[in-house]
Design goal:
heterodimer, A: 249 residues, mainly alpha, 79% helix, globular, B: Rossmann fold, Alpha-Beta Plaits, 2 domains, six-stranded mixed β-sheet, 13 helices, 14 strands, 40% helix, 28% strand, binds adenosine-5'-triphosphate, binds magnesium ion
Chain lengths: 249, 328
């Protein structure tokens, strides 16, 4: 536990210290909220959008923010590799699992903070939090997204030599995961072939879970969302830990 | 007591043999040097001994702990300063030390005390709360050494500890490393391609080239082994000199390399005149001639036929620059 805490502490310190990174990574989600939210609010009206389009995409944008931050945190291991710091950690008499878990929890924490900042911004854009348990549920789903995708990033980073693969992951993994997740559109309104793709995307369950927590309605049963996302998280952490064990400097 | 035992240790990278069946043993409290040019296999050897790299074959142990089977025990007994920087630049010096202390599970009180002690020792205490990215190369190196000592390792690995530092900082680090070894009795294994560094700090030196140990002894014995004196002749007719000189019975060894001819022999003073005469008789022009006591450079030349400086000038240096963008 001490070791997990140590690694976590480093990650959080670095995050809190990089003001420009925090502000920079708020840019895109805020832009989405304002442009899509207000731009389409009066145009788009579909079933399941009792809170208007802006209310509908707030959980989606929060998920996006958590997703991007957590994948980015996981992939940071490559920087540690390139800047040599990873060696300092790996040569210590601690198990690889502890290091990996510390990194995962650390990444999830920063992702969660990032998501909460978007949530707070959303309050100014008309989001009303009506129930505390609902809010807590949203936090739990955000945490799960953070944990699973940080582990996902670590799994990738363990296999990558340098940052060249990063663009590849962004284009072929991260954007599709976000785009297919039902963050920006209601799943029910999709053609059935696209709908089944959406149902294969783990982020869908995160978005829907947060949506249920914040708005009180969702198209997927929150229990199902919770089970699927938890399962995915456990799977990713195990896979990440397995691949990280074999990382070389 | 033996601190490090190495037997036929070998590392291949896709068929390329970087470390080739090396064997040696280091006594507890000894300062041991691996001296060799770029690409000789020094870092690879250090990486295997510190459990960071799996050997292809052979075995090694640190304080009787096997580097493959008892990795955790090996890691607990060693401290290491890597060739490439391994600090977190976004953290302060104190935080880097604290991170290390926590990783090695040093209890809080002791940790704080030791960190302050060590930062004082390497003269960084008044800068301890500055971010490492504001540090100079020498300060970073001192911080890394302090960090390597935090958990009180009995064996300290130093991979090119003074590479790229100015002479003043280098001297400062040398005296510091020497104190650690002499006063605290810490076993030191260091790699370098500075002759002077090996000479000054190491009880014994292994000269390593192309993955093989080609000579291993104290600095004095290594120098004695190649003959008492060295004569160096600068001339444009190097090959001709070589062919006439090697016929003399008192010549122990002759080498021709770019710029000069190096002769190993006993009692050089007695034979200088003879060399000049024979050169004159053969119509060879000599630009200059000098006599000196052997240095480690001469030892390297004697065993490999090349000078370390020639090695340095080769493409390896440029490759190194390209491979290490992280050195800022
Ligand atoms: N991971 C690797 N993959 C392939 N080849 C490698 C690897 N690491 C080292 N080598 C090769 O092994 C040889 C020895 O490298 P090593 O880093 O041990 O040399 P060194 O003696 O430390 O040199 P330097 O003085 O430049 O630090 C070099 O030819 C290098 O190119
Ligand atoms: Mg090296």
């Amino acid at each position: 536990m001490d070791i997990v805490y140590t690694i976590w502490l480093r990650n959080v310190k670095r995050y809190l210290r990089s003001k420009s990174r925090i502000i920079g990574s708020l840019g895109m989600p805020t832009f989405f909220l304002l442009v899509l939210g207000f731009g389409l609010n009066s145009v788009v009206s579909l079933p399941g959008m009792s809170h208007g389009y802006i209310g509908f995409i707030i959980p989606g944008i929060i998920s996006m923010s958590v997703l991007f931050t957590s994948i980015f945190s996981g992939i940071q291991i490559i920087w540690d590799k390139q800047f040599g710091f990873l060696k300092e950690t790996l040569v210590a008499p601690v198990s690889r699992i502890e290091i990996m878990l510390g990194q995962t929890v650390g990444g999830a924490t920063t992702a969660l903070i990032q998501g909460i900042i978007i949530l707070v911004i959303s309050l100014f854009l008309g989001l009303r939090i009506s129930s505390i348990p609902g809010f807590a549920l949203a936090i739990i789903f955000m945490t799960l997204i953070g944990l699973s995708f940080t582990a996902f990033g670590i799994a990738f980073a363990s296999r990558m030599e340098d940052m060249h693969g990063f663009q590849l992951i962004m284009n072929f993994v991260v954007f599709p995961i976000f785009g297919l997740s039902g963050a920006l559109f209601p799943i029910d309104s999709l053609p059935s072939w696209l709908r089944s793709l959406t149902m294969l995307d783990p982020l869908t369950y995160g978005v829907e879970g947060i949506r249920y927590g914040l708005l009180g309605t969702s198209q997927i049963d929150p229990v199902l969302s919770f089970v699927v996302l938890s399962g995915f998280t456990i799977f990713m952490v195990v896979l990440g830990a397995y691949l990280f064990r074999k990382i070389s400097t | 007591m033996v601190a490090i035992e190495v037997e036929n240790l070998t590392k291949e990278f896709n068929g390329f043999v970087a470390v080739d069946h090396i064997s040696f043993s280091i006594e507890s409290g000894e300062a041991f040097g691996l001296l060799g040019p770029n690409g000789a296999g020094k870092t690879t050897t250090m990486s295997m001994l510190s459990t960071m790299l799996k050997p292809t074959s052979g075995r090694a142990s640190v304080h009787d702990f096997d580097i493959l089977k008892e990795q955790d025990d090996v890691r607990k007994s060693i401290g290491i300063v890597f060739q490439d920087q391994s600090l977190d630049e976004e953290l302060t010096a104190y935080e880097n030390m604290d991170f290390h202390g926590r990783l090695y599970r040093i209890p809080k009180n002791l940790r704080e005390k030791k960190i302050n002690e060590l930062l004082k020792l390497v003269e960084l205490e008044d800068k301890k709360d500055n971010l490492v990215k504001t540090y100079s190369g020498g300060m970073r190196r001192r911080l890394e050494i302090a960090r390597g000592l935090l958990h009180e390792p009995r064996v300290l690995f130093l991979d090119e500890p003074t590479l790229g530092l100015d002479p003043q900082t280098r001297n400062h680090l040398w005296s510091y490393i020497d104190r650690l070894n002499k006063e605290k009795g810490i076993t030191i294994i260091l790699t370098t391609h500075y002759m002077e560094e090996a000479d000054k700090l190491c009880d014994r030196i292994a000269i390593i080239d192309k993955g093989k140990i080609i000579a291993l002894d104290t600095s004095e014995k290594l120098k004695e082994s190649i003959g008492g004196d060295v004569i160096e002749i600068m001339s444009s007719d190097r090959d001709k000199i070589h062919s006439v000189i090697k016929a003399f019975s008192w010549v122990k060894h002759v080498d021709v390399h770019n710029g000069s001819v190096t002769i190993n022999l006993q009692n050089a003073e007695k034979h200088v005149a003879e060399i000049v005469n024979v050169a004159y008789d053969n119509g060879i022009e000599i630009e200059s001639i000098s006599i000196h006591k052997p240095t480690l450079e001469d030892v390297f030349l004697y065993y490999t036929g090349r000078t370390m400086r020639e090695e340095e000038a080769s493409s390896k240096d440029r490759m190194r620059m390209m491979h290490k963008p992280q050195r800022r």
